[in-house]
Write a structure and sequence with these properties.
homodimer, 236 residues, alpha/beta, Metallo-beta-lactamase, Chain A, six-stranded mixed beta sheet, 6 helices, 14 strands, globular
């Protein structure tokens, strides 16, 4: 019997304007692939790379409805006939898959498991794939996503992070939706210990108070980005 | 007999101002580590991460004498007592290791092999480590480093890339010294096929002509960066 070691391949991409991370994940055997959080301004780059890597793009997946940039999902689907997946709370009519906690997304022998991790928004999904979690904006490196708009909730954020993500094995790699300090990834073990908001047993009440005390300005493009992203980025 | 699979760990870091990539590489068993191309403005961040990851930093290594930013190597050595390694052509008196082609740098059971790949400068080193090559500025993703200063030479650049890097196995991951388009890594196979300057059998004469025809402006900080980096970044 020949045993083939299946390993998912991952490519991290950056949109420098919005400091957004986009990910390609694929099964090297079948070449079936998903893109997570594509950015509209980068669609041409991403389509070219998908073509060069000889991938069969099956899915364009959102970690949530973004407020700071427009998704590239709609344009990518126009080119490659993939399925757009977003959490069912997003009420996004243009999407093909209304995802809920526990759903599995298959690319050949590679699986992405949907973990509903609300708190930054009510549409947050973390995608777990063979020792790696794509955490979107709920858990950032040494930080966490703001909780003051789009049905964000600091208590839910704390619960999602501590009950769902911090219960994964310590060595699980974390690939976030953004970073502003030049970090590209982290691990569950690191964030449990060193995340200044959540590490070393920070209490729920303290976290809620901290998140509520932040005086953050509204993202520049929020008023157009949220409805634009509910429309899969297919707006003027 | 118990076989332990030794795998090098890698962490990619970004300096957004100069679009420079810094890398931490370590042996997960011994925790011995090297940092490749640290940036002076990011030393505090990098030292904190090294501490949090519980690493024993043995080396701070340069892929070349940089012209666009100041290295953090000198400041890192002041904190962590590591050895600074740079190619012997750099004539950098402050460095501890004058590296030449074929040298091996050991961190526990992990080895970095020095490949002299001149062409961008005469001090270019690519570091090869267990299926990954840190290519500095000689080979960039879908591009290559300019060859018009610091003893750069387009013919040498072509030879270094095609004879030394493109002869590595196709699946070898390439981690470059910079990227300006949001790519984080590539593979030898991809660059052999899709690098517009070098892919698909581009000829040496064409490459030389192309590189010589570029009208590039001098990097802003070059006049201070080059002597500053020969001094391990320890300048005002």
């Amino acid at each position: 019997m020949v045993t083939t070691l299946v390993k998912r391949q991952i490519r991290q991409l950056i949109d420098n304007r919005s400091s957004t991370y986009t990910y390609l994940v694929w099964d090297p055997n079948s070449r079936e692939a998903a893109i997570i959080d594509p950015v509209r301004e980068q669609v041409e780059r991403d389509l070219k790379l998908i073509h060069e890597l000889d991938l069969i793009l099956k899915y364009s997946l959102e970690t949530h409805i973004h407020a700071d940039h427009l998704t590239g999902s709609g344009l990518i689907r126009e080119s490659l006939d993939c399925s757009i997946g977003v959490h069912t709370n997003a009420a996004s009519e243009c999407s093909d898959l209304k995802l809920v906690d526990g759903d599995n997304i298959s690319m050949g022998e590679v699986k992405l498991e949907v973990i509903h991790t609300p708190g930054h928004t009510n549409t947050d999904i973390s995608y777990l794939c063979d020792g790696v979690v794509f955490s979107g904006d709920i858990l950032l490196i040494r930080g966490s996503g703001r909780t003051d708009f789009q049905s964000g909730d600091p208590g839910q954020s704390y619960d999602s992070i501590t009950n769902r993500l911090f219960t994964l094995p310590s060595e699980t790699l974390i690939y976030p939706g953004h970073d502003y300090n030049g970090f590209t990834c982290s691990t569950v073990g690191e964030e449990k210990q060193f995340n200044p908001r959540l590490g070393n047993g920070a209490q729920r009440d303290d976290y809620i108070r901290l998140m509520q005390s932040m005086k953050l300005t509204k993202p520049d493009r929020m008023d157009s980005a949220v409805p634009g992203n509910q429309a899969c980025g297919l707006v003027e």
